[in-house]
Amino acid sequence: MATTFECKKLCNVCFVFGIFVKKQQLNHKTHLKLKKILPKATFLMEQDKKILVKCGGFSTQLAKHVGSKIDGDPLWGSRFDHENPSAVVRTHLDFLENGAQIILSNTYQSSVQGFMKHLKLSREQSIALMRKSVQLAKEARDLYLKNVVEKGGTTETILVMGSVGPYGAMLHDGSEYCGSYTDKVSKEEFQSFHRIRIDALLEENVDGLSVETIPCQKEAEAVTEILLRDYAHVKFWISFQCKDDLHLAHGENFANAAKAVWDMIKKKHGAKAKDHIYGIGVNCVNPNFVANLFKSLHTLLGNEDLPPLVVYSNRGEIYDADKGEWTGLDDCIPMESYVPDWIRLGATIIGGCCRVYPEDILQIRKCVDSFGNNNELSSFNNKLN
């Protein structure tokens, strides 16, 4: 093999050594030298780990079907599991039909407290509604797969994850985007709050839990602790909400928080830690923040094993709370343009959050299939072996 083979911007080792392949490609001889002296774990892109595409902003798309002002609702999209379940199923289908391989139950803002107050349900009815949300997601998945088979297509595995939103979502005051409640809530209170929804979701046999939009390290550690202690068989991911390209919404350093969670998982599961989680990452963030957030984790961990990374950012618009509307669409660039960098940095689950529509997910899926799961990466690996 010629020693002039170039890494073509796919090799994560180039980042680890501070040699940014966007500016300087490595020849194959140098590449092999770096490969020999670094742990194999740093070569994330040389592993045969499939990259999965998650759905986009569920309530964003749901609004097209319910014709209601979801953003101002104290239950956000969760209300419609109760009031318009067919619209919930249709929304899941919208994403599945555009390439999503992972869908989430519509339980981000579900809580016994919220359902009792705003829907006048009993505690038992509130828990039943959380379970119903999973049932609706599975109904959509089954219908989608049935349609694929009837049309002569090839089916693929669709994961139904249980959405576990932050404590702040229940408060309906925007505090999940600043973490202002962090110091007012004890670890035990966090765990008691989340346990109710976790139990309800697991009763419906979800494929895992999406602990998402967490604004503070304290809450992430509290949830991780009970998952590892009381639900050790359950696979999950933890994703943080970040206010910039270095810090969580509450102000903690993202890399430190992610490492703390990863250390807890490794302490519990040892060398098999990666088999017990879907990943650690970020969601509901500006897409322009993601690369630096992930790079900061690379820098902190150095040669240690990185966890699988998860990212599903917003489209990039800004929500104006005073006007109750999103602004800045003209400044956004296509979501799929971020995907190659995210893959190079180790993302194994990629999707969208607020303002990310099914058509955006379709483009992300096309990019993942062409860049991350298909010919370019396979060819690259074959040349190295």
From TrEMBL:
Its cofactor is Zn(2+). Zn(2+) binds at C284, C353, C354. GO terms for biological process: methionine biosynthetic process; methylation; S-methylmethionine cycle. Keywords: Metal-binding, Methyltransferase, Transferase, Zinc. Gene3D superfamilies: Homocysteine-binding-like domain. GO terms for molecular function: metal ion binding; S-adenosylmethionine-homocysteine S-methyltransferase activity. SUPFAM superfamilies: Homocysteine S-methyltransferase. Pathway: Amino-acid biosynthesis; L-methionine biosynthesis via de novo pathway. The keyword Zinc applies. Residues 40-368 form the Hcy-binding domain. NCBIfam families: PRK09485.1 (NF007020). This is Uncharacterized protein LOC101898193 isoform X1.
